[in-house]
Structure of Beta-hexosaminidase:
Amino acid sequence: MSAKNLRFGLFLGLFLICSVAVHGIDLWPMPKSVSHGSKTLYVSREFGLYMEGSNYSDGLGILKGAFERMVDLVEASHVIDGNSSGSGVLSGVNVVVHSPEDSTFSQLCSFNFVTRVVELRSAPWTISDLPRFPYRGLLIDTSRHYLPVRIIKGVIDAMTFSKLNVLHWHIVDTQSFPIEIPSYPRLWNGAYSYSERYTMADAVDIVQYAEKRGVNVLAEIDVPGHALSWGVGYPSLWPSASCQEPLDISNEFTFKVIDGILSDFSKVFKFKFVHLGGDEVDTSCWTITPHVKAWLNQHHMNESDGYRYFVLRAQKIAISHGYDVINWEETFNNFGNKLSPRTVVHNWLGGGVAQRVVAAGLRCIVSNQDKWYLDHLDAKWEGFYMNEPLTNISKPEQQKLVIGGEVCMWGEHIDASDIEQTIWPRAAAAAERLWSPLDKLASDPKQVTARLARFRCLLNQRGVAAAPLAGLGRAAPSEPGSCIKQ
Amino acid sequence: MSAKNLRFGLFLGLFLICSVAVHGIDLWPMPKSVSHGSKTLYVSREFGLYMEGSNYSDGLGILKGAFERMVDLVEASHVIDGNSSGSGVLSGVNVVVHSPEDSTFSQLCSFNFVTRVVELRSAPWTISDLPRFPYRGLLIDTSRHYLPVRIIKGVIDAMTFSKLNVLHWHIVDTQSFPIEIPSYPRLWNGAYSYSERYTMADAVDIVQYAEKRGVNVLAEIDVPGHALSWGVGYPSLWPSASCQEPLDISNEFTFKVIDGILSDFSKVFKFKFVHLGGDEVDTSCWTITPHVKAWLNQHHMNESDGYRYFVLRAQKIAISHGYDVINWEETFNNFGNKLSPRTVVHNWLGGGVAQRVVAAGLRCIVSNQDKWYLDHLDAKWEGFYMNEPLTNISKPEQQKLVIGGEVCMWGEHIDASDIEQTIWPRAAAAAERLWSPLDKLASDPKQVTARLARFRCLLNQRGVAAAPLAGLGRAAPSEPGSCIKQ
């Protein structure tokens, strides 16, 4: 299903007739094509799902679940105690769908405070939709701060509202190793505490929860540079007790452990990609630690040879488990021509990288930190919206190699208390850039401020702690006022 | 039920035997008396509720609902896929209860990462519990910023975890009038926007949701000073178009509207108290508006006479609808001897007020802003914990008149995006002060820092965005680290 999610969008059609009302198109992100009439339909309490003509096999009950969640969203904002019988009742929706989708239709429905029923205004609607980029990601970081399973599920729920479809789970890093690895059970000795851990069953639960909602989970281990916590359970993975990262390149056990982790991952994380990191590698521990330095000399490698050797060997292991590999851009910047052709290069340092990556014939994901790092509170929603992944990439065959983009919620100052309002609504601004056709995107963010503000209020109504648009990231409202004006 | 909640606590007993384990008492707030053994019980997947000996009528299914939520909390943190069969299985809990309660037992249970089942350690437990103060409140403000129904329900859920039992709903104020008043339907023309409103059915939904969880909803209209938004729908409630508050004391219609609101309230808000505000009344509009000034002269009143007249007349109206009245302390400070004996004086300006109020024979609620205002981000949890409502009140009959305290989450800079982490964990620190016996309270907050930190992590695990203890209110974590150390 994962691969399918990356390829297909959605077609939703509604055809019914009723009494009059008109309003504008208030959807986020903006679909590929929308047309509507001027009628108002009342959503029946026995609202049903019809799938005539659908070629989507719903064996997993994915569409049914999505439909039930959609109805819940439609009905959640206020108590519906009006009478919706009689003509003009919308008794169901006939959907032809290629991927689970519960966001568009629910945004079209609104509570009528006079009739006390939910209505679909400006009907009939004809919406044809398809994502511009197949990969629309959000990174979370459970190493700098542990995120409870319930919080991660909340992030996934909110992702679906703006059609983000890849949860990049930066699971482990220097600070902690929270996840269980059955092949090497002492690895999670590197967790912060007894309770700040995930079992493999928790990981399966998260992956299935996401899959049901059309979200793929991309697992990352960041080697060799961001892996100090691995040595808490297995100290021989450290060059020495006093110099603890990068991982000891001279120790065969290091690669055995990587193989064990990726073998265990392949049973749980079914997405076609795995992320191997490879960024910010300071190799000084290798040269000041005698047995590592000796191993490098013996193999006629300098530090940068060693870095390349490590990354490429890790890639081979991942590929042997059936994965395509994603690496941070330093690997491309240092030895791009040596990377596996199955590599996707993950940009983060700045702009202008994607055009070099695709010119080299590799795929690329755009996350330039100046625009798409959510932990940069001075990066405002306007910059998230305007950041164009295809800048200076004109050839169609090169454009295809940019599979999408990702906004990154690094966890140094993020935990369960502030993750939602640091992510939203800025991530939603990037989500429209990644979903909507170029000709539907505003050339000036001012043109979409009001629509995004209304979408932010909708997120609040759905229980998502999305912050005001005004000010820095996650800024508190500066004064009393209406949600839609802040 | 409301009144009963205010009087009774809970007795919970568990008597079973099993394999060995020991740990300390890790409950928040600390119960009246706790004793435990050194056994470990495994919670059966068919965990059941037994009510032998209960004298609690559960006609509303309140206890059953509370029990189901408790089991959900117990099982929510991790996937339970271990085998809990055999001896030492905790197959149920025998509860004798006088009020709905789902917090204590769930805090005793924890997930065992080895056996993969939920266990109750240090059993058997004998817990006898009873709140120190009957009124343990939290104020929310839906006038400065609208709070969606789902967000309010989330606040109620979190209140139950630390045994707060009164949601003080400051519904309307100068800035907006979000709630429907059937008797005067144009009042909610004062709402911020079409969708930022509550129907009466929404209010009923919120009250019933709270009642099922042992939380009373205290409704407030803040007259005459904080009522400008009333005039949007009925301009004659303003002294003039250019001088719009306090409400026009010279207009009989003003009191008709107050009567209509309280009449409608009495059908929905079944708590024994209603809050009539009465704070921060600037009467200058009365004296500079000719027809109001003429009315005052005609009735031989100066401004302060008018203020007293208004408050006392509003009290009579509330009492005529069966309510006891709560007023902010300025009413007591200005004409305490004239207030109805059924008045509860709500302190907020500073300390030392309660002792004067109870000396005058009136009841009091403590909310001194320097310690218990949550919107004061420089008010730290230690101050919330140490704020003693009975300071300088030694006579038992006077102590009884302090019915409790309340922490206040004023909404000028609070909306759905930041309310949870601004409330928690500071409100929980006050909750222990209001719940636990004096001899169980720490004389130095340092003695409870670790326990409160663990409770904050538990809130996170339950999906509540409780902030780190360190730093100002709702501060982001200052660096990577374990939840229990921040």
